[in-house]
Design a protein that fits this description.
By secondary structure, this protein is an alpha+beta fold. It has helices spanning 2-14, 16-37, 51-62, 82-93, 125-135, 160-177, 180-204, 214-242, 247-274, 282-313, 337-347, 349-364, 385-397, 416-428, 461-472, 485-519, 523-548, 568-596, 601-629, 636-668, 677-682, 691-715; strands at residues 69-77, 97-98, 102-103, 109-119, 144-148, 372-373, 405-411, 433-436, 440-441, 447-454, 478-483, 564-565. It folds into 4 domains: 1-37 and 178-331, Multidrug efflux transporter AcrB transmembrane domain (Multidrug efflux transporter AcrB transmembrane fold, Up-down Bundle), CATH 1.20.1640.10; 68-152, Alpha-Beta Plaits (2-Layer Sandwich); 336-384 and 493-685, Multidrug efflux transporter AcrB transmembrane fold; 405-483, Alpha-Beta Plaits (2-Layer Sandwich). Strands 1, 2, 3, 4 and 5 form a 5-stranded antiparallel beta sheet that branches. The longest helix is centred in the C-terminal third of the chain and has 35 residues, at 485-519.
């Protein structure tokens, strides 16, 4: 692989204008495609095949109802009556179908349901403004008005998160490289990659149902890995220039060596994201594939566009003071920090190992209280109209009013009502049930629908238990199913939880096999996968502490706490897996290379940290800044994912890879690199370190030298 990438790097450097033109053309074509083929996104979560999804299909068939059409609730508070609400109701009826007001027992709270005959994606911003204006007409009479429902949510996106991440990344790159050109190159190429990825996702929305969070997730990952991968190649290129190689050769060797590690690191992220398809959850699969596509683009840009841009930069890729004497880059007045750190870790390896494990264990401990659910208006910002409407309905009608359950009863023709009455009686006797509505029967008389109001909120454990209790009951001569938004969310959460262990097993098993291929070792992959689990545990623990328990929530701008979003664990495992393997590869490959060439185990560890710690530190700080910028996002999923990834990267890079890994490698000694001979012969050699490439280039150089020495002799 290293030899192939070496040739690609040389080609891209030499034919830089052609390479650049190719990427510009691709960007233009994707932009045209996005402008003509893009479609809407969705924020709905559903899983085909679950009981709640099947029941929704029955309702659509038997009653002609559909959950796809948009709706909203307008909530009024104050001294209420039909006459006081009449102006608002009249104005709302001009926009859509409006039900009569429903009042609380004390007549202090009321609501009307506004139903549109089009999907929420077809409700424009102008329609939303008209809805808000129509409800607000009674505010002048001292009546409070709030709104809930997807129609009322704004779809405007803020790019402050990306901007902050890019600014911090630029600052780190300038410090690392000491050159504006070198700092700007990874940023520019990463932005090109994100642009292509985002346009590709826009095109995909015209053909597939993608979540509204897909673009943010892909942007987050695309920026982070795009900058980091370019950083590794540019750093290696500068090293090659500093030891006297020409631009073409330096680009070839940089892509052949650092580029090999980029390919492996990128593949781990891509495979982990694509593996989300094993969960059988369509929206999760779509998000994973879309993000994986953006990462793949980042890898391709790193291997082709980066060396091409290096060709345009010339010596400006170096600090101004070193352009006349590139070799000065390799001469350090003092011992590098990475070397000093590694020597201290090796010298005090037991203290470093045990102390770090204690810290990670303390941070990870809150994961024992992890609770998962899908977000609703109860997790919205307290200042938002959706959260105010939710709280007012809960106060006026009970906590369970915001999470009604729909019971679908199917029986023989004409027997629907009697079966539904039997179900009504059985459900009414259950714990935590406030009311059960009278059955609504379809025209054929074979299907009935009941509405159950729980006593607890939609995301509570009591409501989840109630759903299971209802499903455990049977109705003679009929089938009964539970659906509605609350039941759908419960089914999605449970499906995600059930998929977590198999997915984790796939990811961990994959990590072990891939690292065994790279490092030709048993203990190194085992250590790497255990370290990955430590990073995930710490990230989960911090996530629970902040977003579920509320510790430091105000400092991070978390306005409401509660169960974590159900998709968070699987996404966090998949993404952190890929990123953790990045640092493992970039740090440990140099250690293995030096050990193979005769260095003692401890000297190899110190050498690996000496050459890799600075770049990995910069890469980790860049990833942390990009992810942390998304904490400013309004979307709960993106905010919590940004926080957990930033924290997880910090733990993995600085505690696991730069402390635990060198300590363990020192303790293992030569045993760290042991691999059974039969297994060694069976496994293919992927040559991530570029050993075969280096050997081949040396042989070519010696052959060329012999030819030159033979020419004068032949002439004589």
């Amino acid at each position: 692989m290293a030899t192939l990438l070496y040739r690609l790097g040389r080609f891209s450097y030499r034919r830089r204008r052609l390479t650049l033109a190719g990427w510009v053309l691709l960007l233009v074509l994707f932009a045209v495609g996005a402008a003509t083929l893009s479609g809407p996104t969705t924020s709905a979560f559903s899983i085909p095949g679950t009981e709640s999804s099947r029941a929704l299909e029955v309702l659509a068939t038997k009653f002609g109802t559909t959950s796809d059409n948009a709706s909203a609730k307008v909530v009024f508070t104050g001294d209420l009556s039909d006459s006081s609400l009449a102006p608002a109701v009249t104005a709302l009826k001009k926009l859509a179908t409006v039900a009569d007001p429903v009042y609380s027992a004390d007549k202090k709270t009321a609501y009307v349901t506004v139903s549109y005959d089009v999907p929420v994606t077809d409700v424009s911003i102008a329609d939303r403004e008209k809805l808000l204006a129509a409800g607000d007409v009674v505010k002048q009479d001292g009546i409070g008005v709030e709104f809930s429902g997807e129609v009322t949510r704004t779809t405007e996106e803020s790019h402050a998160a990306e901007a902050i991440g890019i600014i911090v990344a630029a600052f780190v790159l300038i410090i690392t490289f000491g050159s504006l050109v070198a700092a700007g190159l990874p940023l520019v190429t990463a932005l090109v990659g994100v642009g292509v990825g985002m346009l590709g996702i826009q095109i995909a929305t015209g053909f597939f149902d993608l979540s509204s969070s897909t673009s943010a997730l892909a942007t987050m990952l695309g920026l982070a890995v795009g900058i980091d991968y370019a950083l590794f190649v540019v750093s290696r290129y500068r090293h090659e220039i500093a030891i006297g190689r020409g631009g073409v050769e330096a680009a070839g060797r940089a892509v052949g060596t650092a580029g090999s590690a980029v390919v492996f690191a990128g593949l781990t992220v891509i495979i982990a994201l694509v593996a989300l398809s094993v969960t059988g959850i369509p929206f999760l699969t779509a998000m994973g594939v879309a993000a994986a596509g953006t990462v793949a683009v980042a890898v391709l840009i790193t291997l082709s566009l980066v060396p091409a841009v290096l060709g345009f930069c010339g010596t400006r890729i170096l600090p101004r003071k070193h352009r006349a004497d590139p070799a000065a880059l390799e001469h350090h007045a003092k011992v590098p920090f990475g070397e000093r750190w590694a020597r201290n870790v090796v010298r005090h390896r037991w203290i470093a190992l045990v102390g770090t494990l204690v810290v990670i264990g303390a941070v990870a401990y809150p994961v024992m209280d992890l609770r998962l659910a899908l977000p609703d208006d109860s997790t919205a910002a307290e200042s938002s109209t959706q959260r105010k409407a939710y709280d007012q309905l809960a106060a006026g009608f009970g906590a369970g009013f915001n999470g009604p359950l729909i019971i679908v009863v199917e029986a023989a023709s004409g027997a629907g009502r009697s079966a539904a009455l039997q179900a009504q009686q059985a459900i009414g006797d259950l714990t935590d049930v406030v009311t059960v509505s009278d059955p609504v029967v379809n025209q054929a008389g074979d299907t009935a629908m009941l509405t159950v109001i729980p006593g607890s909120s939609a995301t509570s454990e009591a409501t989840k238990d109630l759903v299971h209790d209802i499903r455990s009951h049977t109705v003679t001569g009929a089938t009964m199913a539970v659906t509605g938004t609350t039941a759908v969310n419960i089914d999605v959460s449970e499906k995600l939880t059930d998929a977590l262990v198999p997915y984790l097993a796939i990811v961990v098993g994959l990590a072990f096999v891939l690292l065994m291929l790279v490092f030709r070792s048993i203990l190194v992959p085992l250590k790497a996968t255990i370290g990955f689990l430590l990073s995930v545990g710490a990230a989960f623990g911090a996530l629970v502490s902040v977003f579920q328990k509320g510790h430091l929530a105000g400092l991070l701008g978390v306005e409401s706490t509660g169960p974590l979003v159900s998709i968070m664990p699987i996404f966090l495992i998949g993404i952190l897996f890929g990123l953790a393997m990045d640092y493992e590869v970039f740090l440990v490959t140099r250690t293995r290379e030096d050990f193979v060439h005769g260095a003692s185990p401890n000297d190899a560890v110190i050498s690996g940290m000496k050459h890799g710690a600075r770049v990995v530190t910069a890469a980790a700080l860049i990833m942390m800044s990009v992810f942390a910028g998304f904490i400013l996002a309004a979307d709960t999923i993106i905010k919590s994912l940004g926080f957990s990834l930033a924290f997880g990267v910090a733990v993995d890079a600085f505690l696991v890879r730069m402390t635990i890994v060198p300590a363990l490698l020192s303790l293992f000694g030569r045993a760290a690199w042991w691999l059974p001979r039969r297994l060694d012969r069976f496994l293919p050699n992927v040559d991530v370190e570029g050993e075969q490439l280096t050997r081949r280039l040396h042989e070519q150089a010696r052959a060329a030298a012999r030819e030159e020495s033979e020419i004068p002799a032949a002439a004589a």
